[in-house]
Design brief:
Blueprint: H1 2-46, E1 52-58, E2 61-62, E3 65-66, E4 78-84, E5 87-93, E6 95-98, E7 103-106, E8 109-110, H2 114-126, E9 135-143, E10 154-155, H3 164-170, E11 174-182, H4 188-205, E12 211-218, H5 226-232, E13 250-258, H6 261-270, E14 279-284, E15 289-292, E16 295-299, E17 312-318, E18 341-345, E19 349-355, E20 359-360, E21 363-364, E22 371-376, E23 386-392, E24 400-402, E25 412-414, E26 417-422, E27 428-435
Parallel strand pairs: 11-12
Antiparallel strand pairs: 1-4, 2-3, 4-5, 5-8, 6-7, 8-10, 9-11, 12-13, 13-14, 15-16, 16-22, 17-19, 18-27, 20-21, 22-26, 23-24, 23-27, 25-26
Length: about 425
């Protein structure tokens, strides 16, 4: 009986160990094959007869990073790290998905020339057509048609010989770019036109690939300040911020995408209602229009600018006894600091703002698309510690709702003004806080 009881667990352990041994052998076999493929590849592409193998890591990934796989199996693709003349670089080897053709096939690519390609793009395109002398490159990558490891890796046919124009136009390479230029108030329209020209210069070079290009002209007093650096920090969980790319920080922005024509054709066949184009451009000048009493408004919606009061719908009415704002407990905005401050209405005006159109370029406006409100400093008492927008609840309750998803003062200082995003189609008032 004891013997039988022991046989079951021992057999299970033996099977498990034999399985692990099989996987280990297969893993070493795949690594050896990929290493040889990589060495043969760089010898053919660059003539690197003396390249040395440093490491092989098997992986299964996609365009946005590794894909979790809970099956215990050996991957058939990976990254081979090689060294040549003191330089370490990677070679991607194994099956890869091509997003344009929707095919999976063996593809080899490497990042040996990546830094030189980036440097030449920056010098010959960005520096040559730059908007202002000072700028900050937040995102800068070159991408290809491979989904797995396609960023900054180039195939055998994509060998760079120093001719940037031929290299870009002759290969299906795209660009992921995000640039913040520093500007000043006097050059608003000039910056917008140069920004637009630079965008189209870049887009024309990457018209046969998948590119994401974003160009901003930042205000001098906000350019790369501590808050912006914090938000641009990829480790910051609050990095996606609706204000940082808006009128509080920038005079204008132009963002857009280029798409490979084969890719567009395939997407349209699979999704007949798709409106994907080979070039998609979104631009905003963040032009403010005055609505009186030191307040002006600007669009934060793509491809929609306010140039006259006819571009925006707004109402301003005086507070009445029957309004839910009357007698509200504004200290509840910031309950933890109730004993330190008192809260007062900036004025007796109730505001409501909205876009003049229901849609722009086929995209409908909804409550999540705010309008920027700019308030002159002269309208704010010197004793004010900070400003808040206070909205009426959308369910018409008598309670007052402060947008609790912001953990800092709602208005941001910008030059001689304060700027905040106002929710559309909702009554709001402006409250200021002062020390007791």
């Amino acid at each position: 009986m004891k013997v039988r009881l022991l046989l079951g667990p021992l057999l299970a352990i033996a099977l498990l160990l034999s399985g692990c041994g099989y996987d280990a052998v297969k893993e070493q076999k795949v690594k050896k094959e990929l290493a040889q493929m990589a060495l043969d590849y760089v010898k053919e592409k660059y003539g690197m007869k003396e390249a040395k193998l440093a490491e092989v890591k098997l992986s299964h990934g996609g365009y946005n990073g590794p894909i979790p796989d809970f099956k215990h199996e050996v991957r058939d693709s990976g990254v081979v790290t090689l060294e040549y003349n003191g330089v370490s670089f990677g070679v991607l080897a194994g099956p890869s998905w091509n997003r344009f053709s929707d095919e999976i096939k063996n593809v080899l690519s490497d990042n040996y020339q990546t830094e030189q390609i980036k440097a030449d793009i920056q010098e010959q395109l960005i520096d040559k057509h730059k908007v202002t002398d000072e700028y900050y490159l937040y995102t800068y990558r070159v991408s290809s048609e491979q989904d797995f490891g396609g960023i900054d890796y180039f195939t055998l046919e994509q060998k760079y010989d120093g001719n940037l124009e031929t290299f870009l136009k002759g290969n299906k390479l795209g660009l992921e770019l995000e640039v913040f230029f520093i500007g000043n108030e006097a050059g608003g329209e000039h910056y917008f036109e140069k920004n637009k020209a630079l965008f189209h210069q870049l887009a024309s070079r990457f018209s046969n690939a998948e590119s994401e290009i974003s160009l901003y002209v930042s205000k001098e007093d906000r350019y790369m300040d501590e808050r912006m650096k914090d938000i641009l920090d990829p480790k910051n969980p609050m990095a996606i911020d609706p204000i940082i790319y808006g009128p509080a920080y920038n005079y204008c922005k132009i963002t857009g995408e280029t798409h490979n024509s084969e890719y567009v054709e395939r997407i349209r066949k699979e999704h007949p209602k798709s409106n994907m184009e080979t070039l998609e451009v979104k631009e905003n000048r963040f032009s403010f229009v005055d609505i009186g009493k030191g307040i002006s408004l600007a669009s934060m919606f793509e491809n929609s600018d306010f140039f006259t009061v006819d571009d925006v719908i707004y109402s301003v009415r005086l507070l009445e006894d029957s309004d839910p704002f009357t007698g509200a407990d504004y200290a509840s905005i910031d309950p933890d600091k109730d004993d330190q401050y008192e809260y007062k209405l900036l004025n007796n005006s109730i505001y409501n703002v909205s876009y003049a159109k229901k849609s722009y370029d086929g995209k409908e406006v909804d409550w999540s698309d705010p309008i920027a409100i700019k308030l002159n400093r002269s309208e704010v008492p010197e004793s004010a510690d900070c400003l808040f927008l206070v909205n009426k609840r959308t369910d018409d309750s008598s309670d007052i709702l402060f947008l609790e998803d912001l953990s800092e003062p709602y208005f941001l200082a910008s030059g001689d003004s304060f700027i905040a995003p106002a929710r559309t189609d909702t009554d709001f008032m402006i409250v200021y806080r002062m020390k007791k």
